[in-house]
Amino acid sequence: MKISKLIIVLLFLFAGKTIYAQTDKIVGMWYTIDEDGNKKSLVKIYRATNGTFEGVIEKLLTGDPARKCVNCTGAEKGKPIAGMIFIKNLRPGGGKLSGGTILDPANGKIYSCTISLDKGGSKLKVRGSLDKSGLLGRNQTWEKAPSVD
After folding, report:
1. Which among 16, 18, 77, 142 is most buried, taking Cβ atoms within 10 Å?
2. pLDDT digits (tens, 9 = 90+) for 98-110
3. Low-confidence stretches of the chain (pLDDT beneath 50)
4. 125 Cβ neighbours under 8 A, 6+ residues apart
5. pTM of structure
6. What's the pLDDT at 136?
7. Which CATH class is domain 2-144?
8. Which residues, including other chains, have CB under 8 Å from residue 82's CB and lie 6 or more apart?
């Protein structure tokens, strides 16, 4: 009886580490891709000091690289898009990141966000939703950027 309980505990521990290992693979540099398949920006996803995940726009690859978020409200209004933290408070669970928000600098709107890694590990599935249910929203696929040491 004690052995079966030990096995169950070990399975839960292993499953938990697998989930975190999967979400930790989301950390890194990613290209955002537009509807035509063109790279729009370079984004860095990282684990914040409070344990949540965030994303910052490192570089704009199209248009004016110094453009500002004119449609944003609050603290982001008029700030440069490059360098902006636009993904906030994502938490790991079920092999994905969710529960946080993503800002669309093009329209200044903030959406609920879910991010998951594809099976190959080279693409992210990013979903911005109007509400936490995730029913009404839009999907994007981002591509892994090469590592630069």
Report:
1. 142
2. 999 999 999 999 9
3. 1, 6-20, 149
4. 115, 116, 117, 118, 139, 140, 141
5. 0.82
6. 82
7. mainly beta
8. 57, 58, 59, 60, 65, 66
